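thought: fold this chain, then report.
action: predict
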Amino acid sequence: MTDTATMAGLDPATLADVLRLAGSDGFDRIQDQIRRTGGCSDPIHLQGTTVTRDATSGQVLHTYSTDTEPGGRLRIACGNRRASRCPACAWTYAGDTYHLIRAGLVGDPAKGTPHTIRDHPRVFATLTAPSFGPVHNRPDTGRCRCGVRHPEDAPELGTPLNPATYDYAGAVLWNNHASELWRYFTIYLRREIAKRAGLTQKDAKEQSRISFGKVAEYQKRGAVHFHAVIRFDGPDGPDSPPPAWGTLELLTGAIRAARKRVAVDVPAASYRPDPDQPARVEPARTLRWGVKLDVQPIKAFGDGEDVTEQKVAAYVAKYATKAAETTGTVDRRIGNKEALVLLDVPDHPARLIAACLDLHPFYPDRKLRDWAHMLGFRGHFSTKSRRYSTTLGALRQTRADYRAAQQREALGLPDPDDNPEATTLTLAHWSYAGHGHTPGESWLAANIRRDLQHNREAAREALADLNGGDLDDSHC
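observation:
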């Protein structure tokens, strides 16, 4: 750990703390705690005790107290989904999302979906925002409207050709209402399905069900768009086949028609910042989806098609850990415009954030100031319908149960699955004792996280070689 080569370039304060850690009596345990969190960037510190007793006799089988830990604290992972905040916990979150989405595509009885769902019509749909003004881009012709052929990493991509005429207010209000647009889309989708099947909505609901899993992604221009897996099921969800009329063509047509029907009205609003001045007025708006819609069938076994089950699951999982910071903004709340200068936010996202702050007095119930750092978007990044597949909570519980079983085995405690009569009772008391790392611990966590990532990549490459080809970006 203290290899001179790996410590090159450390600032004096971090280097001094690394040396302090390396020479401390509790270093091995600190390193073990950090490794158990996966190299979490901002672990939660707990203080407390646990006592495990035999439920029948009351005999104490095991006790634990953080008094024996370095500093009297136990570190646990923060669980933050944002890769910009904690890459280690974001990797776990992305893995859970991958398995959730994949279970709704290939089937996994342990996760509530039979393998027969591979025979159900499924599409990968992308719904986008409308235009709020021309932006720098890379069209198929290769030349942007500004006359330049931009490289892929050009910083001006997604920024307005003319910021003075760009509809910043419309852009952030659209983001702010994106979740409502999606909700109305799902309502109209079911209506369009019934219409195309020649059924009443009640009859269509009794014969079929639409299940979906989706993720939000920010385009370079700062507008949210949604990627969604949409699946046709029978009346009992994934356990039943869709009706004969529930075809891929009908589903695709219904999606396209439903997208056109959605409209969310934002009423006009006024605000008088100064009693001696006339009120400012924001005009009424009708928000709609953009004209760009991509709907592609998902192939079951990847028979030469680009849109396969593995790739779709990996794509959704990738964006489940990202947010507006991909556009140049920050990943925490901004209270005022002065902070934009201090944080060195680029001009385009800074204008979007400023628009949120300016519009907040007009629409206080929309909480635009609270979500300014998200460019107005206030919805969940990853959502699903009830019967799509398992839940993130169930996946976390499975992982917790597995670790609990490992702990029981390590401590020699009875396994209730082997002997139901040998029940135990655990009494615990925990209290919050802070969070984060010292500079040296942060360096150690980053190195542990890097090593774990290297090991995962090596294992993935070995698995790819074993299978005779490349694997998609999955959480193996």
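thought: worth noting. The chain has two domains: 5-76+420-466, 87-132+167-390.
final: tokens above.
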